[in-house]
Structures are given as C-alpha cells and as structure tokens.
Amino acid sequence: MNVELTVNGAARSGDTEPRKTLADFLREDLGLTGTHLGCEHGVCGACTVLVDGEPVRSCLMLAVQASGASITTIEGLAADGDLNPLQQAMRESHGFQCGFCTPGFLMQATALLAENPKATEAEIREVLSGNLCRCTGYETIVNGVLRATGVEVTTHG
Amino acid sequence: MKPPPFDYVAPSSVSDATQALREHGEDAKVLAGGQSLIPLLSLRLARPTVLVDLNRVTELTGVTVDDAAGTTTIGAMTRHRTLERDREIARTVPLLTAAAPYIGHIAIRSRGTIGGSLSHADPAAELPAIAVALDATIVTTTREIAASEFFDGYFTTALASDEIVTAVRFPVAAPGTKATVKEVARRHGDFAMVAVAAQRSPDGDARISLINVADRPVRAREAEAALRDGASIEDAAELATRDLDPVSDLHATAAYRRAVAKTLVKRALAEVAA
Question: I want to staple B208 with a disulfide (CB 3.0 to 4.6 A). Which of A31, B11, B169, B220 is the partner?
Fold first, then answer.
C-alpha cells in the first residue's frame, strides 16, 4: 500500500505492506534510523515519535495509518545540525550514556515542553515514566529536561 | 516481533466498517487505538486475516454533553488523552478524568480509545469499571447495551463479531460530585494489580467499582447502599471486599489482592467523602 506523509517538514512516501509498523517504515523505508526499537511491543518508549504533535509509540502504529499525518522524529530536532535547546541541555546534563533510549526520551520531552515549557520536576518525572533507560538511573535525564525549562541544575561528577 | 501478514481496510464510515466485518466474518478484527491489538499481533497471539481500521471514521470521535437530557456521549474513537484533558468531561463525568492518568503512559493515551478499551474488556483496565460504576450505556451499530450487561469475562463482551461500539453514554454527574481512582501497580503506568473507582454525590449517591479482582469489573452495590444509609467507611470497605475471590498470580496472592482492595476502597471513600 502507498503511504504519503510528512516527516520533519518534508513530504515523503513509500510502498509498504499493511503489517509494517511506523517505526520500521521510518527506519527501513525512509532511512531515518534515529528512531530506535527496543521492545517492539509498546513497553520501553524508545520508538516514541510525534504524530501531528502528539507523542506516539511508533511500534504500536502501522505505517499505513500514518498516511496524511505529520511526523516528527529525532532527526527533526537539530535544525541545520545545530543542537536545539533541549538537546543542548541534555548534553550539558550528561543525560545519556549508551544513547539507545535517548530518541524516545527527547521526543517525549519535546511534546511535554511544547505543551508546558515551564514543567516542574514532578511533571517531568511523570511524563518520562513511560520511557525506560538502563544506564543512567534517570537523574541526569530529568535534570536535562529541567535545565531546558530554564531551571539552574547543578550537575554532579 | 513483527505482526503476521494481514489484509487491511480503512473505511471512512461506520456502515462501510460493518460491511467489511460482515464480508470477512470471524477472521476480521477491528483496529481502534491499537495499543493492545498491535502488541498482540507482534507477539503473534492474535492472527486476524483482515484488520478493519476505524481511525478514518471521523463520525466516531467527539464529546457531546446534553445537559437537558443529563447525558454525556463520547464517541468510541475518542482518545484517552481527550478523556484526560477535556473540560466538559471533567465537569460532567469526573470519574473518567480521574481514571485517565492511570491508563498506560501518555504516548499510549495519545492513541488508545474508549471504545477499544471497553471492547477489549481487560479485567485490569480502568474504563470498563468506570462504565459499570456509572451505569453507562454502550451504544453499538445495532443496539444499546447496559454496561452491567456488557462484560462477560476475561476479554469477552456481549458484542457480536460484526458489531462495533460507536459511543458510550454516561449520566451527567450532579454538581459537587467527587470522584477518584486509587490504584496499586508494580510500576507506574502498568496495568493495575488492584484498583478502585469511587464517586460520591451531594445527594448521598455512592458508586464503587473494583478493578482486577475478578474476570470483569466488580460493582460493590451492597457497600454503595450502606453508604447511602450512612454506613462508615470502614464498614463499607468490609462490605465491598468480603466476598471477593480474586486470582493469585505471579504478582500477588489472592489474599494480598483482597487486602489491597479493602485499603484502596477506604482511601478512595475518604477522598470522596462530603
């Protein structure tokens, strides 16, 4: 089936089986491998992307369902290769180690900050609770998003 | 972890969706939000030959409050995020607003739908218990079904194979109604180990529904009646939980579930007390 959609502001299309998930379509058909697949059944959050502005697990949506939608992936955050403020804040907070979960965390945090640019630490923890990280212990990730809200965060180590 | 092959149709009307289900019979499956069905496909626990996707059926979304009739009607494809954020729902069906944050995580709530959750009938899910607690009416393509008659057991409902839930109709809550959901889960966002939905209205009306203590939602009618007659929270909690016979599994024994249920009923009733 033909799929036509907008990805990071550009019109894209592809021919896909109905059973292909949006995540696999982004990675395999469009070459956007920044979206990571961890569990492939909606538990880990690594594949989170924005669909028409809302955070969505791209492993729990079929590519054919995204026809006509506007998708934002991790590749859409850094305009012209410059880190955006959230990415910069995450970098300054050492908000990743192996980096596998990072795209999902950043897309989920992007959705949060778009709706609530001054989110509190408690709100950030609540929103990020749907994403798993096996390296950092989460503290530096929470600090990174908090830093992106303009809060001064002391980084240890 | 990839879904098996299937044919896919995305009708734009309820009548076309029904037609597709009739054509393909028992091997077809309705795709609503997909937050339970797509994992089942990926794990190969479900192998429908045809998916009938309702996501292009715009007539199935939306919230309509009729204050004169005292009803709030929610289209079946309305997302959990809408239940969480919609002000008219907060005003007229506050128990839904209280329940929504417990449904998975935000990215799940972006896609998951009320009609899908009711049709899936997971005994650990919140929305079936809310529908039962509030005596909601489940509107389908062929009839209207009282929520108390809709759930037949684990993942089983009164729906025929070519019948689709189109909307859910709730009674409008009286002004001053207090509603809450209390839940114990292994991790935040997981399905409930045990949960309780409770509501009190200024006229004394009480609603209590228990989640994941049986194969379907359990309404604590005896406790509700006792509360209307002025029973204490302690006595109501005992009435609500003394006959429960929950299962033991990997996560909790039956005795533990019963004890947690009683504690949660007490906490919920304390919160919604006048």
Answer: B220
Same domain, A89 and A69: no
User: How far, CA to CA in Å, does A141 sit from each of A103, A144, B54?
Assistant: 12, 5, 37
Sheet-wide strand order for B63-66: B63-66, B71-75, B165-171, B137-140, B144-146
Boundaries of domain holding A53: 2-76
For B208-225, letters b (16+ CB in 10 Å) and e give bbbbbbbbbbbbbeebbe
**The dihedral sign for the CA sequence B221, B226, B229, B232:** negative
For the entire predicted model, the pTM comes to 0.96
C-beta atoms of B2 and A60 within 8 A: no
A chain contacts of residue B30, beta-carbon cutoff 8 Å: none
Give contacts of B112 with chain A, Cβ < 8 Å: none
- Give the residue from A76, A109, A137 where a domain finishes: A76
Pair (A17, A58) in one structural domain = yes
Q: Summarize pLDDT for B18-48 with one digit per residue, the tens.
A: 999 999 988 999 999 999 999 999 999 999 9
Evaluate whether B192 touches B170 at the Cβ level (below 8 Å). no
Query: What pLDDT, in 10s, does the model give residues B199-211?
Result: 999 999 999 999 9
Determine how many CB atoms are found less than 10 A away from the CB of residue A110: 24
Residue B146: count other Cβ atoms within 10 Å of its Cβ: 13
Q: A18 in contact with B at a CB cutoff of 8 Å?
A: yes
**Model pLDDT, residue B189:** 83
Confidence of residue B83 (pLDDT cuts 50, 70, 90): very high
ipTM: 0.94
Domain presence at residue A36: yes
Angstrom distance (rounded) from CA A30 to CA A15: 11
Distance CA A19, CA A106 (A): 27
